[in-house]
Write a structure and sequence with these properties.
This protein is mostly helical. The protein has 4 helices and no strands. α1 runs parallel beside α4 and α3 crosses α4. It is about 75% helix and about 0% strand.
Length: about 100
């Protein structure tokens, strides 16, 4: 199944950023890019290529299993990736808080 690895990376990245208290800002950014934003881009880019231009991995999936199956998988994976990314963005909305408190 295409992009199952991306969903696993999203879940691992979500867990690392939510559950673990990492104090290193560089490491947080690296986790965000490698585990959250990269899979999000990969899924959305390939699914939109399938929907609008009819090419890519989802096209191969639709040939083997049918267009409905490819669309359902694409929509579910896109929804999962978007929800996880938005939850991370909301959680880290004011991060890093560099304001000086008096």
């Amino acid at each position: 199944m295409p992009y199952l690895r991306d969903i696993v990376f999203l879940i691992i990245g979500f867990w690392l950023l939510i559950r673990k208290r990492i104090n290193n800002h560089f490491l947080k950014g690296l986790i965000l890019i490698l585990f959250i934003l990269s899979p999000l881009f990969d899924i959305i880019n390939n699914y939109s290529g399938f929907v609008f231009l009819s090419f890519g991995d989802f096209k191969e999936l639709s040939i083997r299993f049918g267009v409905l199956y490819a669309n359902v998988i694409g929509l579910v994976f896109t929804l999962i990736a978007t929800v996880i990314t938005l939850k991370i963005f909301v959680l880290y909305k004011n991060h890093p808080d560099l304001s000086i408190k008096k």
